[in-house]
Amino acid sequence: MKLNTWLPRLAFAPPTSSAKRDVLVVVFLRGAADTLNMIVPHGEDAYYAARPVLAIARPDDTAARAQDRAIDLDGFFGAHPAMRALLPAWQSRQLAIVQACGAPDESRSHFRAMELMERGVQDEHGPATGWIGRHLAATPPGARSAMRAVALGERAPRSLAGSIPVTALRSIADAHLGAQGGVATEHLRRALDTMYQRGDALARSGRQTLDLMRALDRIDPAAPPAHNARYPDSEFGHACRQTALLINAQIGLEVAAIDLGGWDTHIAQGGAQGPLALLLRDLAEGVAALHVDLRDRMNAVSIVCMSEFGRRVAENGGLGTDHGHGGAMLLIGGNVRGGRVHGDWPGLQREQLIGPGDLAATTDYRDILGELLMRRLGHPSVEAIFPDHIVKPRGLFV
Fold first, then answer.
1. In this predicted structure, what is the pLDDT of residue 184?
2. How far apart are CA 390 and CA 398, in angstroms?
3. Is 86 helix (H, G, I), strand (E, B) or coil?
4. Can you tell me the mean pLDDT for 188-208?
5. Cα(368)–Cα(253) distance, rounded to whole angstroms?
6. How far apart are CA 125 and CA 144, in angstroms?
7. In terms of Cα–Cα distance, which of 296, 288, 290, 280 is closest to 243?
8. pLDDT digit string (tens) for 337-368?
9. Residue 88 in contact with residue 129, Cβ under 8 Å?
10. Do 385 and 135 form a contact (C-beta atoms < 8 A)?
11. Cα dist from 8 to 11, 12, 163, 327, whole Å
12. Which of 72, 79, 102 is nearest to 287 (CA)?
């Protein structure tokens, strides 16, 4: 029995329960995504002046190929053409965008920005736990579950750190105890059941592990996605597919965290085509497939895509973009005020930029997450989740 083929991929969580509220899916774009080329301000001339090579052509620019033009959203903003897969979610008003948002930290350091954002704190003196970890600890569970929170990958992100254990999972198929096969599997089950009959802490942990394995064993990883959803053939697409399987199985999952890296595009970023476009296509197709797969449950699912900060407004000499400040967040669900670009747009004229030439952040990311927690995840108050910040709801959720 080769237990080591799957056991290291799991950090087991104890059985608990989950109240009736949205399942939260957080997609973190690590490396600081260029949200100015993701959600293009094609109505602003200063954008094109700052990016003579990297800018995405206006939707009506007949000098550019149709497939290289921004997809118009509201007459001023457009989506990068590689994000076309998310257009149905936008048109059904289940995708909302918040422009010019971010954290107050202006260090432009990946490590510091991610650390503070995932902890949901103003500075390093705040609590060491993550904002999602504090949310789980503060929320009374309802129905019994072997898995409240899962990180799709090798390890859990800092945002999930806290008193509620988290499952780190790469593949449901690999985690199946039944995948070991036949009589040997049944003998292993019986041996573990016998071993964990005691009442000490080790036995309790063992029984919790078995509960989790049994819950995962009930999920068929080969089941076809609902509504003919098509996931990209990528690690991110696989993570989105695993997330849908867990949510559709109704095993009490409350939070799923997925990382998508590679966004630190200092050199040869590309415009309508190139490395950034490939990342945006992977993101859009993965999230779009998740949205389709969960169509019957989207009124009880909230998906958030966020990054630690945005990129510099002007392209650099290496035809990339440097670390900036303000960025954008994507909100997907049957509960968002979708089909709209929200936020207070500060403008891209030189006198409107901050620091070395960055988009200002006019909406604090904690206002967005705080409203989500209060409106959709059952928090009457989020003071303990985001200390030293008074959440100001922006009317993003119904």
1. 46
2. 20
3. helix
4. 54
5. 22
6. 35
7. 290
8. 999 999 999 999 999 999 999 999 999 999 99
9. no
10. yes
11. 8, 10, 21, 36
12. 79
Helix (H, G, I), strand (E, B) or coil at 354: strand
- Angstrom distance (rounded) from CA 385 to CA 382: 5
Is residue 129 within 8 Å of 161, Cβ to Cβ?
yes
Tokens 């078995």 found at: 210
SS3 (DSSP) at 29 = strand
From CA 279, how far away is CA 150, in angstroms rounded?
A: 23
What is the model's pLDDT at position 175?
A: 73
CA of residue 266 relative to chain centroid, distance: 23
Exposed, middle or buried, 362 (CB in 10 Å: 0-12/13-18/19+)?
middle
Give the span between the Cα atoms of 94 and 291, in whole angstroms.
Answer: 9
> What type of residue sits at position 354?
I
The amino acid occupying position 350 is R
Residue 340 φ then ψ, to 5°: -140, 145
Tokens 């909406």 belong to 363
Whether residue 318 contacts residue 302, with contact meaning beta carbons closer than 8 Å, is answered with no
Instruction: Copy the structure tokens of residue 323.
Output: 């670390």
CA distance 372 to 367: 9
Amino acid of residue 201: A
Phi-psi category of residue 38: left, alpha or beta, with phi > 0 → left and psi -120 to 50 → alpha = alpha
% of the chain exceeding 90 in pLDDT: 75
Q: What letter does residue 2 receive in the DSSP assignment? A: -
Say which residue the tokens 């009442």 belong to: 199
Among candidate residues 135, 206, 166, the one with its CA nearest the CA of residue 372? 135
Neighbours of 300 (CB within 10 A): 16
Structure tokens at 268: 């040869």
**Residue 76 corresponds to which tokens in the numbers above?**
């001023």
Please state the φ and ψ torsions of residue 224, each to the nearest 5 degrees. -65, 145
Tokens of 324: 């900036």
Region for residue 110 given its phi and psi (left: phi exceeds 0; alpha: psi -120 to 50; beta: otherwise): alpha
Structure tokens at 129: 């736990």
Q: Kindly state the tokens that stand for 16.
A: 């608990």
Q: Which residue type does 228 have? A: N
Q: Which residues contact 155 (CB under 8 A, 6 or more apart)?
A: 11, 168
3-state secondary structure of 204: helix
- How confident is the model at residue 173, as a pLDDT? 87
